[in-house]
Every structure is written in C-alpha cells, then in structure tokens.
Amino acid sequence: MSIPADNDAFLSHSLGALLHLARRARQAGTTAELGFIAVNETLALAPYRQAALWVADRGVVALSGVVAPEANAPFVHWLERVLQKLLADKPKAADVTPADLATDEAAEWDEWLPAHALWLPLPHDTPGGLLLARDTPWQPAETSLLTEWMDIWGHEWKVQAKPGAATGWRRLASVWPDAGQRLAARRSWFSAEGWQARLQRGRAWRPADLGGQLAGLWHRRGLRYSILALAVMLFPVRFSVLAPGELVPAQPAVVRAPLDGTVDTFFVAPNTKVKAGDKLFQLDLTTLSSRLAVARQGLVTAEAEYRQSAQQAVFDPKSKAQLAALQGRIAERQAEADLLQAQFAKAQATAPRDGIVLMDDPSEWIGRPVTTGERIVTIAGEDDAEVEAWLGPGDIIDLPSGAEVTLYLNTAPLSPVEASLRYLAHEAVARPDGSFAYRLRATLAEGQERPRVGLKGTVKVRGGRVPLIYWALRRPLATLRQVTGL
C-alpha cells in the first residue's frame, strides 16, 4: 500500500481498507480462511514481503504465499522458536530485530527474513500473533493501524476457533432433532423405575414379538441415523496418498567427464537419438596437446642422449656406466607420452549404448571447467522409463511390493499412466525446497503407451483397504498426537 501525500487522503484510504478487512473477517467461514486473510490481505493496510501467523495451541497456522505450511520444514521450526520468545518478551506491538532473539535464532535471521519485522500480538485471551517483515522500517502510523486490525481479527478468530455452548447445542440439534428427549430418557435409564419397567417387559416378551420390536427400533429416527452413520464409517475404502511425481529413466547410462578440463564442443543436442560409439562431446585439447608435444620432444631428446652415450661407451668406460640411467629416463619419457596420448584419446566422450540424450542446454556447458567424474550427459533407452515420486513423512502408509501406482500427467490428465511399486526408500532425504521426503520408484505396466522421460504430474499410490473413518481421521489424529504427545 503506497501512503498518499495528503494526510486526509491517507486516513480515508486506511479506514476504508480496515473496514473492508473487518467485513472479510466477519464473513470468513473457517479458521483457515481467517488465517489466509491475515497473512495475505493485510497487505491492503501496509506493504510487506513475508507474513506468518502463529497461535500458541496450533503452531504456525498460515504463511504468506503458501497454501499450507509444512510442519517439518526448517523455516517453520525456526519461526516457532522465534515467535514463542516474542510472545513472552513483547506483549505489545513492537519492531523486531535479530538483537531481540537468542543467539542461535539471530544467526539465521538473514537466511529467512528481511531486515525489518513487526510483531503484532493477538488479544490476551488468544496467545499468538502475526509477524510481518519487509526491507524498510515500520512507521508509527502503520503500527497503530495494524494493531487495530489485529484486535478485530483476533475477536473473529476466537469466535471461529472456540464456538460457545449455544452454538455447539444448535449443531447437535440440527443432527439429532430429538436430542433433548433422548438425554432425559438416558438419565432415567438407571433409576429404580427404569429397572422395574425393564423387568416387566422381560417377563412379557415373546419370540414372535422380535420382528415387531426390530421394526419399531428401525422407525426410531435417532437409532436409524446412528446405524447408517456407523455403517458409513466402517465402509472399507482403498487407502491412498498423493505425491508429486515424474517419469525418469529406469536404467540410465551416465557419461561423466573423463578427466579435468574445459568442455569445448558438443556433437549432439538434447533429446536426440544416438547409437553406441557416437561422439557426444569433447574437452578442450589445447593444454593437453601442448603437454603431449613436450613429452614427445623429451622422449626424442632422451633417445638422442642414449645413442650418443652408447657410441662413447666404446672408448669411454664412464659413458658406459651412464647407459642404465639413460635407459630409465627413456622409459620414463615414453610412459609420460603414452599417458598423455591416452588422455588425448579419452578427451572425446562417446555414447556407451543406444538411446536418447538427456542433458541441459549445451551452450551452458561450453567453456565450463569440469572435474573427473562430473556428470555431464545421461543416455536413456526410448522405452526405459519408470515413475518416481516423493512421499512426505506424513504420507507414508503400509505399501506392499507391487502396490498400484497411477501417474496423472500435467500434460495429459485424462490419460493416466499405470505402474506397480518397485521399491520405497527406508530413509527420508532432503529435497531442494528444504523438506524431507521418501523416494518411490514404480515400474510401468505393460500394454500401454510409453510417455517420454521428463514429464511431471501427480502420483496416486494405493495401499490396502481400511475403514472410511480411519481414512478420514488419520491425519487429524497424527496432528493431535504431535501436539499433545499422547
């Protein structure tokens, strides 16, 4: 938000934005929507680069520009430590600098946040707050406006997060219209009159009445709904999870730099077909050629010295004693020349097998220094592809070998690629985005069109069958256990 030059215009603009945000907060239907408004739409009151909403009993609830924060991400763990300290040390809105934090957290400030941050605590009955960060200092007028907005937002959060008893009773009554009558009957069930009535019914009961009694029980709306709800909750469904995935080579041939040097020329382009023995790339031969020429000249010189000493050895015993040393020097020069000649031949890399060239733009490699063993080109077979996916720690389920895997490509979502699980890594590895995930590989099923390597999409992995209630409550229960430790 750019601040107008005229003070009246600034006040009018700020109050209008504040009223709009208050209306948006009142209309929010869920706490997730409220969190989204806090970290993304507060931008209408003051400019900022990053925003994080933290509530003491829930952790990091929302981050600006992110659909849902990853609980295991390093940035989220760092934010929780920082915001817990700010909640204890700064009960009111205040500017935040690395000097306000502990040494370990302050050392990581520049890695995660811009230079200037503003801490906006929620009302006292809701421990938590909103952290805004940007590159320029915060102005007092902005701080006052944002403090008022947080007070309004905190009231709406309290209503959404902790509904009152009346609201809870209305929800119960909407599901069980006869809830009051059933509660009263349950209270009288343990009384003396209740026991006496049940004994009398037991004496008068006849087997022929069973059908009528069952029909009467079924006509009780509450019991009927309970049975139907229980049947739905116990209905078996396939246990499945979703994860990002792509098509990768199953058994690629990796061509690496044969020796230290600089890439000079590429003979192939990306995604071209090659055969075994075709030239792929060549390293710069300038330095190697010079060294080879010097080594050959040294060999010629050593051979000339040996012939001269051999002629003198006929008349000079001293020259005869030097022949062994000169022969050793010739062998040394010969070995050096042979080694450089072999390196000269290896400077031109060839394809080890038939397939398709997988690589980056060749122009990015020209002139780049490489070391021995550095990966430069990958050769993959035309039909040699499999599915690779990355499962987050919260998505690991019991997957037997050969479990069904389906890849929905971004380029062709209506043509899924079927595969079967080949292996699932036992240990999570760090991903480029800072999270941890388990690698999954699946073999493509026979009898279907083979898409090309490199296409990305969403992978659906199917496990065994579980009750519907377990499928729906697995994640909430896991989150509850992480929070409570039970």
Question: Main traits of this protein?
Answer:
alpha+beta, 15 helices, 5-stranded antiparallel beta sheet, 43% helix, disordered N terminus, single chain, elongated, 486 residues, 6-stranded antiparallel beta barrel
Radius of gyration: 37 Å
Low-confidence regions: 1-5, 163-187
How many DSSP helices?
A: 15
Ends distance: 45 Å
Number of strands: 20
What is the arithmetic mean of pLDDT? 80
Please state how the strands of the largest beta sheet are arranged side by side: 6-15-19-17-16-20
Structural class, please?
alpha+beta
Please tell me what the overall shape is.
elongated
Task: Describe the sheet with the most strands.
Answer: 6 strands, antiparallel, barrel
| Portion in helices | 40-55%
The proportion of strand residues reads 15-25%
How would you describe the overall organization of this protein?
By secondary structure, this protein is an alpha+beta fold. It has helices spanning 7-27, 31-40, 74-89, 103-107, 109-112, 140-161, 165-175, 179-188, 192-204, 210-218, 221-233, 286-312, 317-321, 323-346, 468-484, and strands at residues 50-55, 59-63, 94-96, 116-121, 128-134, 236-249, 253-256, 261-266, 273-274, 279-283, 348-350, 355-358, 369-370, 375-380, 385-391, 404-409, 417-424, 429-430, 436-444, 456-467. The strands form 4 sheets. It has a 6-stranded antiparallel barrel. α1 packs parallel to α6 and α12 (286-312) runs antiparallel to α14 (323-346). The radius of gyration is 37 Å and the shape is elongated. Residues 1-5 and 163-187 have low confidence and may be disordered.
